[in-house]
Write a structure and sequence with these properties.
The protein is built from 1 helix and 24 strands. A hairpin with a 2-residue loop joins strand 10 and strand 11. The longest helix has 6 residues. The chain has about 290 residues and is mainly beta. The N terminus is likely disordered. Helices cover about 0% and strands about 40% of the residues. The two termini are about 25 Å apart.
């Protein structure tokens, strides 16, 4: 996974939109005017919205480059592990000041608007009737080959001047306004990332990295709740978890049914058993 350089900014939900060049990812955290998540049993009625007005959003970041054609969006609660995702390959930069991704995303100097209907299996489920705040909303816009890639980041619902109007305990919505600039906790949070059949521990818990961690793709994956680990079940669980097959490579480790000794070797990893994948990316005895 590429290293991340975080500057500063904030929202009740965190929105990270990133335009990154090869090498380090340069992240601008931004304040947010409004964030809203709406859940419903009817998938057509689910919505995630974000409105940012912040001078940190500038054409010099590269978001309007003509090469920018794709976007990924993640709304994520590090407290509960609930998330919503959305992707697009229809972004168009005018080469000057503006980027649009259909009707869902619009970026111009000082402004960022997001209004998406999350994927059906990534709905940000509020049925648990628990407090979801703070929420992070992250957007990445990038070129097809990732040589251009931009993040803007905002965090909402973590105190300060943020006005938390709804926290999700009603089972219907999460909403906050007037979100201050704050550190972007959604990136490189450590912990666990799972697609339901196998999982990764370490830096892959970044919600974007849960889609592609730079080394291996976790299709349709999402980050687990804070302080969870990856175990033999292939899912994110509270420690200590159940030991199983584990494949470690560099600062990431992978657990679940996929990782037999043979394909771990093919992956140039180090195989061990029975182990779990901890938050630092190591295969350890549970």
């Amino acid at each position: 996974m590429k290293p991340v350089i975080i500057r500063a900014a904030h929202v009740v939900a965190l929105i990270a939109l990133f335009v990154a060049s090869a090498g380090a990812v340069d992240v601008d955290n931004v304040s947010a005017k409004k964030m809203k998540i709406k859940d419903n049993a009817d998938a057509e009625k689910r919505k995630v919205q974000l409105l940012v007005q912040d001078a940190a959003i500038a054409p010099s970041d590269g978001y309007a480059n003509a090469s920018v054609t794709a976007a990924e969006f993640v709304a994520f609660s590090p407290t509960t592990g609930e998330s919503a995702t959305w992707t697009s390959t229809t972004c168009t930069g005018d080469g000057a000041e503006n980027l649009t991704c259909g009707k869902e995303i619009a970026i111009s100097p000082g402004k960022l608007k997001v209004k998406v209907q999350p994927l059906a299996d990534r709905r940000f489920n509020l049925d648990g009737l628990v407090d979801q705040l703070p929420v992070s909303m992250a957007i990445r816009v990038h070129s097809a080959d990732d040589t251009t890639s931009v993040y803007y980041c905002a965090v909402c619902g973590n105190g300060g001047a943020d006005v938390a109007k709804k926290n999700g305990t009603d089972g219907k919505s999460v909403m906050a306004t007037k979100c201050d600039i704050a550190p972007c906790a959604v990136l490189n949070t450590g912990g666990c990332c799972s697609n339901g059949s196998y999982c990764a521990g370490g830096g892959a818990a970044d919600p974007f990295a849960c889609l592609t961690d730079g080394t291996i793709t976790l299709a349709n994956a999402e980050a687990g709740a804070a302080n969870t680990i990856c175990d033999a079940s292939g899912t994110c669980v509270a420690p200590p978890g159940t030991g199983g097959t584990c494949c470690q490579k560099d600062s990431l480790s992978y657990c679940g049914t996929k990782w037999a000794e043979g394909n771990c070797s093919d992956f140039s990893g180090t195989f061990s058993y029975p182990r779990v994948c901890n938050q630092s990316g190591s295969c350890v005895v549970p």
